[in-house]
Each structure stands twice: as structure tokens, then as C-alpha cells.
Specification:
By secondary structure, this protein is mostly helical. The chain has 2 domains: about 210 residues, MFS general substrate transporter like domains (Growth Hormone, Chain: A), CATH 1.20.1250; about 200 residues, MFS general substrate transporter like domains (Growth Hormone, Chain: A, Up-down Bundle). Helix content is about 75%, strand content about 0%. It has a two-stranded antiparallel ribbon with strand order 1-2. A hairpin with a 2-residue loop joins β1 and β2. The chain is globular. About 45% of the residues are buried.
Length: about 425
């Protein structure tokens, strides 16, 4: 095994690790429990889907912010810092909302600030590393660990409250320890925590290395910002099929991120947010195996395995009962295969399929199609479907999960019959 090369300045490695940890902590701390929290505000299921679809809207807007501002006019760390400061303020206002009309506008504004920072955080690392391909992956792993930490924090507040609740003054809501399991996931506190960390990260970013705009003085077209230069690759049938199937698979993907937390709670799983972080733990494990499987199996088999596990996961969820938690845990643990074998493999496929001059554009294009358009459609569809499966305030979870299982199965069959795995890829 080759030794991982770290930047010459090891302190810079630590600083970028902290950046990645807090970058994904901010997202994970509120994103998973939001569906359940909106229920406490009596927001109907269709609008909850709209809230999650806001991520897709912001992802489609973010290339313009990155390309028009960060890449052309201002240093990357400064744009990154300002966006997190503004995003923290908006997320704080989300936590102060009392109804949907107050909640959604500030959520959308927060996401419009946050989604560009995903690309900017990568850019900060890439431009200050000697060998990004080898140095970046272990640093990026801290982002997944940050997401895991946020889930543990939100779901395990029982420990903190039982130990420390009695020590807080009564006017801050303390005084008497709770007598049963409690969690902050059903409150606005995850948004407040995320807001505080976002502001902290915004301030911290100004201490990062100066990273000047790389396209200063150059003209950039909207087509380049959205990665549309990569549209020429769609002339290749297999690449076009891959793009279309990636978009379609992101629709059932949305069901997991939006509905799994509420589902686990209704199935009687204590600390559901913490349990869901097992998916990120498996993601780290399978991420380490992706290069080996990519060489042994090839791109088509890996993508098919990823799709098959999406189908299997949703079938397990549909068959689960409050007495059969093992099916729930298996479904969560499959996240590593589901995500890494399709999305990470897909990124590797795009990188090899695209010529050097459009490689970056191609990655931007696939991000726009999946995180943007796919997640937007998935969020809206998930909210609509869940509203149709709600009877007297209760969801028919079996129907909820069989629907994305069928969608993923259809994509799998289409991909199997039409995609050709070229040896050159």
C-alpha cells in the first residue's frame, strides 16, 4: 500500500480536517431530523418534501455563485467565510420560525449560502495541496465523521440532559432531570447548533491560506458554470444512459434521506439519528474498497450492485416491523454500498470518460443533474407520495417504501439492458 502523502505543512492538514468536519456537521445536524421537526409545526407531508427539495434548488443555483464570484473576483476563503456567516444567520432564523411561511424562506436562503461551500471547501483543499489525489481523500473522510458526530449529538441528548439538565437554572429550562428518553431532534435546537457552528466556521475560514480567484479577468459563460460543455459527451450512448439513470436514481434516493428518520422513530428505534449514522460508518468502510472493486468488477457491475442494494434496502424497510429491528439496521448499513458503489463509482466513470479539457465541466454537470435536478424532483415526489399514504395522521410505511423500491428496480433494469461497459473506461 502506498504511503499517503501529506502537505509539507502538517498543521495545514489539521486545519483542513477541521474545515471538513464542521462543513458536513452543519448539514447533518439539521437535515436528518427536519422531517420529524416539521411534524411538530404541523406541516403537511407534501410541504415537508418541498423543504427537502430546497436542497436541489440551491444546488442548481450554486454553480453561478461559485463561478461568477469565487472563481473570478474574490479569494476563495473569503467567499467561503462570508457564505457561512450569512448561512449561519439564516439557519438561526429557521430555528426561530413558528410556521411554514416563516420556516421555508429562511431555509432556502440558508441552503443558497451553504451549497456553494461544498465546492469551495474542495477548492480550498485542492489549491493548497501538493498532490490532491492522494492527500484529499483522508481529509475528506473527516466530513463523513462530522456528519456522524452530528447524528450522535442530536440523537443522544438523553445522556447530556440526564447528566446536566438538573444543573441548569430553571429560567433556562433546567432544574429537573427527565425521567424518560428525550432528544433534541424534535425541537429547533439542531438548527440553532448548526447556525452556531456555521458562524464559527465562517470566522475560522479567514485564517485559512489565501487562495486567489483562479479565473480573474477571464470571461466565463453560464454554460461553463453548469458544466454544459460536457453535453458533448452525451453523444456517447453509454454516457447518456449513465447520466439519465443517475438522475432517475436520485429520485428514490431522496426517500431515504427525508423519511428514514421518522420511519425509525415510528418503529420504536431509540436514538434514530445515532442509528442512521451507521450508514456513514459503512460508507467510510466501502469507500476504501471502491478502488479495488473498480479494478476487479468494472464500472457496469459496480453500478448495478449499487442500484440493486437500493432496491433491497427499501424492500427491507417495507417488510420491517417494530418487532423486526434487524431489517432496519441492515437497511441503514447498506448505505455504504448504495452510495459508494453508485455515486463514487459514477464520479470515477465520469473522470475517465471525459477528455482532459472538459473533465471539471463533466463533474459539475453530474453534480447539477444529481444533487440539483434529481434531489429536487425526489423531494417533491416524496412529499406528494407520503401525503397520499397518510391516513388519519399515520403513514402506511409499507407503501411508502415499496414505491422507491420499484423506481430503483426500473432504473436497474434499464441500465442493465442499455449500458455498455467499454474496456477503455
Amino acid at each position: 500500500m502506498n504511503e499517503i502523502t501529506l502537505p509539507m505543512n502538517s498543521s495545514l492538514t489539521v486545519r483542513f480536517c477541521l474545515l471538513m468536519f464542521f462543513q458536513f456537521f452543519i448539514w447533518g445536524v439539521w437535515y436528518v431530523p427536519m422531517w420529524s421537526y416539521l411534524g411538530t409545526l404541523e406541516v403537511e407531508a407534501s410541504l415537508r418534501g418541498t423543504a427537502y427539495a430546497a436542497t436541489g434548488v440551491a444546488a442548481m443555483i450554486s454553480p453561478f455563485i461559485v463561478g461568477m464570484i469565487a472563481d473570478r473576483f474574490f479569494a476563495t476563503q473569503k467567499v467561503f467565510g462570508v457564505l457561512h456567516l450569512l448561512g449561519g444567520v439564516f439557519l438561526y432564523l429557521v430555528g426561530q420560525a413558528n410556521d411554514w411561511n416563516e420556516f421555508y424562506p429562511f431555509l432556502l436562503l440558508h441552503l443558497i449560502c451553504y451549497m456553494p461551500t461544498l465546492a469551495l471547501s474542495n477548492s480550498l483543499c485542492f489549491q493548497n495541496m501538493e498532490d490532491p489525489q492522494r492527500q484529499f481523500p483522508p481529509i475528506r473522510t473527516l466530513g463523513t465523521i462530522g456528519w456522524i458526530a452530528s447524528g450522535i449529538l442530536v440523537g443522544s441528548s438523553f445522556f447530556f440532559e440526564n447528566q446536566f439538565h438538573a444543573m441548569w437554572p430553571a429560567f433556562l429550562g433546567g432544574g429537573v432531570p427527565p425521567t424518560e428518553w428525550t432528544s433534541i431532534s424534535m425541537t429547533s435546537q439542531p438548527f440553532m447548533i448548526g447556525a452556531g457552528v456555521s458562524i464559527l466556521l465562517g470566522l475560522y475560514s479567514f485564517s485559512l491560506p489565501n487562495t486567489p480567484p483562479k479565473l480573474k479577468g477571464k470571461k466565463v459563460t453560464p454554460a461553463e458554470l453548469l458544466g454544459l460543455k460536457a453535453l458533448a459527451l452525451m453523444k456517447d450512448k453509454s454516457f447518456a444512459i449513465f447520466i439519465i439513470c443517475s438522475f432517475l436514481l436520485c429520485i428514490p434516493l431522496s426517500f431515504y434521506f427525508q423519511s428514514a428518520n421518522g420511519f425509525l422513530k415510528e418503529m420504536g428505534v431509540a436514538n434514530s439519528e445515532g442509528v442512521l449514522t451507521l450508514g456513514q460508518v459503512s460508507e467510510i468502510f466501502f469507500l476504501l474498497l471502491v478502488p479495488w472493486f473498480f479494478r476487479k468488477l468494472g464500472v457496469k457491475k459496480m453500478l448495478l450492485i449499487g442500484m440493486a442494494f437500493w432496491v433491497l434496502r427499501y424492500v427491507l424497510f417495507a417488510q420491517a416491523t417494530p418487532e423486526a429491528h434487524i431489517l432496519l439496521y441492515l437497511g441503514v448499513l447498506f448505505h455504504g454500498i448504495c452510495y459508494d458503489f453508485f455515486f463514487v463509482t459514477g464520479q470515477l466513470y465520469v473522470d475517465k470518460a471525459a477528455p482532459d479539457d472538459v473533465r471539471s465541466s463533466a463533474q459539475g454537470f453530474i453534480a447539477f443533474v444529481t444533487l440539483g435536478a434529481g434531489m429536487f424532483v425526489g423531494g417533491i415526489l416524496n412529499g406528494w407520495w407520503n401525503s397520499k399514504q397518510t391516513v388519519e395522521g399515520s403513514l402506511n410505511w409499507e407503501n411508502v417504501w415499496y414505491f422507491p423500491a420499484v423506481l430503483a428496480a426500473v432504473v436497474l433494469v434499464i441500465f442493465f439492458l442499455t449500458f455498455k461497459d467499454k474496456e477503455t473506461v
